[in-house]
Amino acid sequence: MTTNVPTDREEVARRRETIAELTRAGLSAAEIAVRLNITPRTVVRQRAAAGVSKPTYPRLTEEQIETARRLIDEGAPYKEVARTIGCCQSTVAQRFPGRGWTRKQIDEWRRERRLWAAAS
Hints:
The protein is an all-alpha fold and 120 residues long. It has helices spanning 9-24, 29-36, 40-50, 62-73, 78-85, 89-95, 103-119.
């Protein structure tokens, strides 16, 4: 892989700011690396130097939160709630801790579903 190595401090500062802006826009290190023709490790180092360690993701809207709350109250698992409102399962789990299904509940539900399917 041929990379772009900046030769002066101004170029380094410009690239660092570009990386910080792309990070704030939500791009991953790999996506930024491809765009700028540099390695993902360089992106990580430049993020750290700029004080931006990870991309920031948009917060959930009030509508998404209300929809998620309603679905969880109806008994939907985190995965289904996340798919419905368009975010990660971990985001839903962090926002509504202790309200999703446990592994044991999921296993019980699967067993019940299999029993119903076998009886039909």
